[in-house]
Design goal:
Shape: elongated
CATH architecture of the largest domain: 4-Layer Sandwich
Number of domains: 2
Number of helices: 6
Helix content: 25-40%
Strand order of the largest sheet: 1-2-3-4-5
CATH topology of the largest domain: Metallo-beta-lactamase, Chain A
Domain Metallo-beta-lactamase: 23-193
Largest sheet: 5 strands, mixed
InterPro entries: LACTB2_WH (IPR041516), Metallo-B-lactamas (IPR001279), RibonucZ/Hydroxyglut_hydro (IPR036866), Sec-metab_biosynth-thioest (IPR050662), WH-like_DNA-bd_sf (IPR036388)
Organism: Sphingomonas brevis
Order of helices and strands: EEEEHEHEEEEEEHEHEHHEE
Protein name: MBL fold metallo-hydrolase
Length: 280
């Protein structure tokens, strides 16, 4: 267990991958009474490490930001070990396009209480953890605010951009959620993967700009000629690790669906996409 600041500590699950960086980070929030955020994958050694870190203290809640399988499955074993309720995101069992082994949805997740935006968990003598609804990466994604820090799950990570893959991932929702975070003014982000984000406003502005740049790039490519998604990925992501190509294709598809809803592109024959000419 690694203490990060008063009332916040972190444990790292041993599930490294191109999508999880060094692994999923589980956070313990509180002093005498705890909330465990993102208990992680179903790994006995990680659950044992959490129980050891809890060290007999009461666990007020086990809270999951979303239900990809690198985040929520350990909630069940941890609940058995501690008796704590599972309080957080809603259940969701949709599959993404080209699901990856470490992040398809946890179909066995059953929360005792689902938090809506702005609802809180009270614990440890008056401390509060507040749900911040941030759909986009998944429709059920929550961040959790604690004082002036925000636990961002997979919505914002300092080491990588977030994967947004339909049918559940939604680019328009993701951009709205990013704008919400841009307006919040949190001091610090604690993501589920990678280091703490010490300049969150600057990072969020950069990520919004990155997505807008990617959108312009896609519009330019489909404006040149009809293109399918693999063709767009090949031109938009030169030299990409082949293990990440399906995820890139999913994000491109999410952009295309958003652009289609805004009347800027249309789907054509052979799974190609074309830019719609705009009036002067």
């Amino acid at each position: 267990m690694e203490p990060l600041e008063p009332g916040v500590a972190r444990l790292l699950a041993h599930n490294p991958s191109p999508f999880t960086y060094f692994g999923t980070q589980t956070y313990l929030v509180g002093d005498d009474e705890l909330v465990v955020i993102d208990p992680g994958p179903e790994l006995d050694e990680h659950v044992a490490a959490i129980v050891e870190a809890v060290d007999g203290r009461n666990v007020a809640a086990i809270s999951c930001t979303h239900t990809h399988r690198d985040h929520s499955p350990a909630s069940r074993a941890l609940q058995q070990a501690t008796g704590a309720p599972i309080i957080g995101c809603a259940p969701l069992v949709l599959e993404s396009i080209g699901p990856r082994a470490d992040a398809s949805f946890d179909k066995q997740y059953v929360p005792d209480r689902v938090l809506a935006d702005g609802e809180t968990i009270e614990f440890d003598g008056g401390k509060k953890l507040t749900a911040v609804a941030t759909p986009g990466h998944t429709s059920n994604h929550l961040c959790f605010a604690f004082n002036d820090a925000l636990f961002t799950g997979d919505h914002v990570m300092g080491w990588s951009t977030t994967v947004v893959v339909p049918p559940d991932g939604d680019m328009a929702a993701y951009m709205r959620s990013m704008d919400l975070l841009r307006q919040r003014g949190d001091r610090l982000y604690y993501p589920a993967h990678g280091p703490a984000v010490t300049k969150p406003a600057q990072l969020v502005r950069g990520m919004i700009g990155h997505r807008m740049q990617r959108e312009r790039q896609i519009l330019k490519l489909v404006g040149q000629r009809p293109r399918d998604i693999p063709d767009i990925v090949a031109h938009a992501y030169p030299g990409l690790d082949q293990r990440l190509v399906p995820a890139a294709g999913g994000s491109v598809y999410a952009h295309l669906l958003d652009l289609q809803q805004r009347g800027l592109v249309e789907a054509g024959e052979g799974e190609t996409w074309t830019r719609i000419a705009q009036p002067d």
